[in-house]
Write a structure and sequence with these properties.
about 180 residues, OB fold (Dihydrolipoamide Acetyltransferase, E2P), about 15% helix
Length: about 180
């Protein structure tokens, strides 16, 4: 690759690649120093989170989805880690979106009155409790949303020496 192409790729490390000017036969410079390691948080624990992403899109199946990203605030030991989830917008799965909106402060009965317009920007920065569930994708463990609750239900906890330990109140609620 020429120095000219190398310089422009380095200068625009944060910008998306301009595929219209690429010549795949020459190769492509990619800056992997910006890749974040996605460390999972301990499974089945409640985390006080900030809703940092909420957007509608299309799932691989062709149906609609709602993608959310929750950034952990407490416990502080796990602060800034993210827990993500895609919620299906198909009728049989809307209960999960309903539970998310209730956790974000919407009235459960009002939601069931009929159509409800969801404006993602109205919820960004809101707090909620997320109980995580970890899964492995492409050999990397990732935290996903298992359950959501209103932020007022969060009970602070400190990580133990056993990162997989379930708080007593969570264990009792599981039965």
């Amino acid at each position: 690759m020429s120095n000219r192409n190398r310089s422009s790729a380095s200068a625009a490390a944060d910008a998306p690649l301009d595929v219209s000017t690429m010549d795949p036969t020459e190769g492509v410079d990619l800056d992997f120093s910006v890749v974040k390691t996605l460390e999972a948080v301990p499974d089945s624990q409640p985390y006080l989170c900030l809703l940092t992403k909420m957007e509608f899109g299309k799932a691989g199946s062709g149906f609609g989805k709602l993608t959310v990203e929750c950034t952990v605030q407490e416990p502080a030991f796990f602060a800034d880690r993210t827990i993500t989830q895609d919620f299906s917008t198909q009728p049989q799965s809307l209960y999960r979106v309903h539970n998310l909106l209730v956790a974000l402060g919407e009235d459960a009965d009002k939601l069931k009155e009929g159509n409800f317009k969801i404006v993602p920007s109205n919820y960004l920065g809101s707090t909620l409790v997320v109980v995580s569930q970890n899964s492995v994708y492409e050999e990397q463990e990732r935290s996903r949303v298992r359950r959501v609750k209103h932020a007022s239900t969060f009970e602070p906890w400190e990580p133990s020496d056993d990162p997989g330990a379930v708080p007593a109140e969570e264990e009792a609620a599981a039965f």
